[in-house]
Amino acid sequence: MHLFFIDESGTIVAENKKHSKYFVIGGVIIPEIHWHDIYRKLRELKKQYGVTSEIKWRFFSPNNKDNDNGMSNLTFEERDEFRQKLYELITSYKSIKIISTITDIEEAYKLPYVNDRDDLYWYSYKQTVERFQYYLQDLSRNSGAEFNGLVIIDNRLSCDDNRLRNLHHNLLVVDKENYSKFKNLIEGLFIAPSHLSVGIQLADIVAGAIFRKVEKDDSKYYEQIKKSIRNRDGNIFGYGIVQFPKKI
Fold first, then answer.
1. Quick one: which of 13, 36, 185, 187 could link to 17 by a disulfide (CB 3.0–4.6 Å)?
2. In sequence order, which residues have a C-beta less than 8 Å from that of residue 227 and are 6 or more positions away?
3. pTM of the full predicted structure?
4. Distance CA 222, CA 207 (A)
5. What is the largest distance, in Å, between two alpha-carbon atoms of the chain?
6. Is the pLDDT assigned to residue 13 strictly greater than 70?
7. Domain residue spans in the chain?
8. Looking at domain 2-42+96-244, which of 3.30.420, 3.20.20, 2.40.50, 3.40.50 is its CATH number?
9. Closest Cα to residue 97, out of 222, 225, 247?
């Protein structure tokens, strides 16, 4: 069983309002046989650095003063070192893979079927989960054994969660021509609060690293996770990194 943890970075608002240029969904695939080991190592890292809160990308900023930031005791250098250790934890396992969708918000709003922020989020999410399904198909084909997976995502507003849960369910049961078949996904969408999920916290800092690269042209953190991005023959685009709308 493979667990696919998803989080996001960037801000989606109405088409005519100010927003970031890009919206990023970042996902981390963790085989269930490694979950306990990662959980233990993450706890040890947090104890080593005296981190008392969940891990969030924004907490690493030296300007972040949130009351729930459990990294406030760390210097900028210590926060950066801690983040690097987290990326090393992810990339130390060959079987842990990263899949992400990078959405150009302005270009997405030009599509006839993207009319609001919910549509934009959904089609970004759908692209991401499709690549997870393809990854499971590849594993199954190459090994001769069936590999299945679960999708776990950070909770949001209850109305947003319910809509996404229903749309995700429709992916599993749809039987239409030109639609991907999600036969390797088990059950529906699992929604969990990030502070209770190791995988979602790791997905958060993965999404942050990719967002930082495309939005700010800063590849420092992206380079630390690059080798774990799903690829085929070294090509990550269309496999581990999805551009939405698709670039010509």
1. 13
2. 91
3. 0.92
4. 9
5. 55
6. no
7. 2-42+96-244
8. 3.30.420
9. 225
